[in-house]
Design a protein that fits this description.
12 strands, five-stranded mixed sheet, alpha/beta, 295 residues, single chain, seven-stranded mixed sheet, 7 helices, Purple Acid Phosphatase, chain A, domain 2
Length: 295
């Protein structure tokens, strides 16, 4: 028996309501937005560019955690850590999130692993996932899809789009730009992308992340997929036309790990290194100063 079905497991998979019951319950759990959002570059129901406004005197500082590769629905997802991270974010009003994909496992016959690795079917995974995160949906500033959400495209469609629709959050299946206006400083610029490839060594992970960091003018680049924690720092030369000088602008690329166990899963077969859950955390100050660390 999988850990997810053991007595006392925090996610009660065997309690499956009807679709109508589930939607009513979900509607009761959804919390209204607490920040003003502007969405741009809308392609269908996807938002490629999102801006959030935070009143300058609302918080002394803002904390934004990147959550990635949860793979909710897998028998070896660390569900106790899922609840731990969600509750930590909800425990203070100045904590928010950005999501970088692979939020549910969603096994399909054309994907690695086995259907027996999943606790329930993809639709039930999705409904239990949105039920679990609905109380925190007002803290999600941006979300992009991963290869696990896209597993269903050949037969059903992008599951990430359905998750975003149910939670009423901005979503992009590829990359997403997220700006946060906080205090008197210029907007803090983030770019989200799930990632690609099968990098295993620290050097190849860094190369993948560095290529992503070269693609735009963001200050923070959040990526997942590779299940290895990494922070990569760099500086960009920026012209100051008025002063006729060059200033340096800090940029940081970050990769979180995963909520999935390594041993006993496809991650072991694929050669991923074992890891615990650790996620990037951005701290913004109204003055414009900012830092990134792993938590």
């Amino acid at each position: 028996m999988s850990r997810a079905l053991l007595p006392g497991a925090p996610i009660k998979w065997l309690e499956q309501p009807t679709t109508q019951q589930a939607l009513r319950q979900l509607n009761d759990l959804l919390v209204p937005d607490v920040l003003r959002c502007h969405e741009g570059m809308c392609i269908g129901d996807q938002s490629k560019y999102v801006t959030w406004e935070v009143p300058s005197k609302k918080f002394e500082r803002l904390e934004i955690m990147q959550i990635t590769d949860m793979q909710f629905g897998h028998a070896f997802c660390k569900y106790e850590r899922v609840v731990e991270y969600r509750n930590w974010i909800l425990s203070a009003p100045n904590r928010f999130m950005i999501w970088t994909g692979d939020m549910i496992d969603a096994h399909a016959v054309w994907s690695p692993g086995s259907a027996w690795d999943n606790v329930v079917d993809p639709q039930s995974q999705l409904m239990k996932f949105v039920e679990t995160w609905a109380p925190a949906r007002h803290r999600i500033l941006g979300s992009v899809g991963g290869n696990h959400e896209r597993r269903a495209i050949p037969a059903f469609g992008d599951l990430g789009r359905l998750i975003a629709s149910l939670l009423r959050i901005p979503y992009s299946t590829g990359k997403q730009l997220v700006d946060v206006r906080f205090g008197d400083a210029a907007p803090f610029r983030m770019c989200l992308w799930h990632g690609t490839g099968g990098a295993r060594t620290k050097g190849t992970v860094a190369q993948t992340l560095d290529r992503f960091m070269q693609q735009g003018d963001s200050q923070f680049y959040g990526m997942g997929h590779l299940h290895q924690a990494m922070l990569l720092f760099g500086w960009r030369e920026v012209r100051d036309n008025k002063a006729r000088t060059i200033r340096l602008e800090k940029r940081v690329g970050a990769v979180g790990t995963s909520f999935l166990e390594t041993i006993g899963t496809y991650a072991e077969v694929a050669g991923f290194a074992s890891h615990d859950v650790i996620m990037p955390l951005i701290v913004l100050e109204p003055s414009g100063h900012w830092e990134v660390r792993l938590r």
